[in-house]
Amino acid sequence: MLSRSRCFSRTIGRSLSAISQGNNALSRRTVSGLSACCWVAYKNSRPECETRGSVFQIRFFKTSSAYRNEVVTVNTPAFAESVTEGDVRWEKAVGDTVAEDEVVCEIETDKTSVQVPSPAAGVIEALLVPDGGRVEGGTPLFKLRKGAGAAKAAEAPQPPPPKAEAPAEAAPPPPPPPPAAAPIPTSMPPVPPVPGQAFDAKPVSAVKPTAAPPAPAAPAGTAAKGSRSESRVKMNRMRQRIAQRLKEAQNTCAMLTTFNEIDMSNIQEMRKLHKDAFLKKHAIKLGFMSAFVKASAHALMEQPAVNAVIDDTTKEIVYREYVDISVAVATPKGLVVPVIRGVEMMNFADIEKTINELGEKDMDGGTFTISNGGVFGSMFGTPIINPPQSAILGMHGIFERPVAIGGKVEIRPMMYVALTYDHRLIDGREAVTFLRKIKAVVEDPRVLLLDM
């Protein structure tokens, strides 16, 4: 019986030793008896089990500080299907403290910009890509030490507590009693002696004014009035892509522009009458863009050549039986053209909702583009085709002008519209008919109901 107990104690001791070494833990074992027991404790717990004088105790180290100082590598997020690379523009530097979800850098692609936030609070350990460097999806961007900023703030020396106010000083002693009255003087006080040498005197003409201090220098980045200085800024990727595509359109397409004008009286009256009910039902405002988008879809189905495209590889004309309209949107970094798909099956409410969510839409494809320069006050202009499309509609500002209505001159809100088209595919007859169809629908939306 005694030998069995010793064997059991020896086996337990070896097991506990193996557990202690495998987990890198503190192990303390005291053997002074025939039986044993064991206990595993985590963090700060101190369990003990004692039987006949035998005690085993295992405690593991804390892992919170190791997790807090963990260094992670943040990679480039996945791009859209048609985007393969972009340029990095850093918002933070090495050693900067960042909060969770704070933007560390921005990746500029051909079509949009992608912000890269910090996955956790910490400190930037290293930037793995230079500013302006080109990256692809999954490329390592920077290293972040999690929680390092919070740890530094906790370890920073705290300001000393304010000293206790000194006790109030003792009250000053009472003033001495006034002296006895002095006798009234009967003689004049003595006159002070005149100095033997007079001060050096200089004529006024010999005195030279001191130079005024120099004016403070102008802050960096601001040019003085009349300055002929220059500054250079790197062209971002989006602007480079816009320039490339527009130049390709000029070199490839035989562009021609036709114009017309639209009386906006009816559409303005319809918007005025129904905007409140429209907003209440659909939770979105009724604008003019939905009317032009729907009118364009109606005209594109009537004139399929404007919705077609030339395949230069096979020398074929591709006619599309669907309408995907790109709406050009101006941003501080350049022009982007998100796409509204399947416009031919949408109503005004669907179009307005989609336009409101254009920032979340993709920018690939599109069979026709609408550019609205009127939001900036443009009165007249010729838009450039967005390749590989074959035409683009340009909207402009609404201005009151005198027009002839029924033999009389009236003041009406008028808008000039322009259609730029590829003359290799679209003739003047199709272009003018297309633009007149848009004019008819916008001036009288009932044309859509009658399918005219």
Automatic annotation (TrEMBL):
Pathway, per record: Amino-acid degradation; L-lysine degradation via saccharopine pathway; glutaryl-CoA from L-lysine: step 6/6
Ranges where the Lipoyl-binding domain occurs: 71-145
Positions of region (Disordered): 147-233
GO cellular component: mitochondrial matrix; nucleus; oxoglutarate dehydrogenase complex
Cell compartments where the protein resides: Mitochondrion matrix; Nucleus
EC primary class: transferase
Keywords tagged on the record: Acyltransferase, Lipoyl, Mitochondrion, Nucleus, Transferase, Transit peptide, Tricarboxylic acid cycle
Gene3D superfamilies attached to this UniProt entry: 2.40.50.100, Chloramphenicol acetyltransferase-like domain
GO molecular function: dihydrolipoyllysine-residue succinyltransferase activity
GO biological process, one term: tricarboxylic acid cycle
This protein's record includes keyword Mitochondrion: yes
E.C. code: 2.3.1.61
Ranges of Low complexity composition bias in the record: 147-156, 201-210
Cofactor: (R)-lipoate
Family annotation (CDD domains): lipoyl_domain (cd06849)
Chief site of localization: mitochondrion
Bias kind Pro residues: ranges: 157-195
Keyword presence, Transferase: yes
Record's function text: Dihydrolipoamide succinyltransferase (E2) component of the 2-oxoglutarate dehydrogenase complex. The 2-oxoglutarate dehydrogenase complex catalyzes the overall conversion of 2-oxoglutarate to succinyl-CoA and CO(2). The 2-oxoglutarate dehydrogenase complex is mainly active in the mitochondrion. A fraction of the 2-oxoglutarate dehydrogenase complex also localizes in the nucleus and is required for lysine succinylation of histones: associates with KAT2A on chromatin and provides succinyl-CoA to histone succinyltransferase KAT2A.
Family, per entry: Belongs to the 2-oxoacid dehydrogenase family.
Name this polypeptide is given: Dihydrolipoyllysine-residue succinyltransferase component of 2-oxoglutarate dehydrogenase complex, mitochondrial
Species whose genome carries this gene: Albula goreensis
Lineage: Eukaryota, Metazoa, Chordata, Craniata, Vertebrata
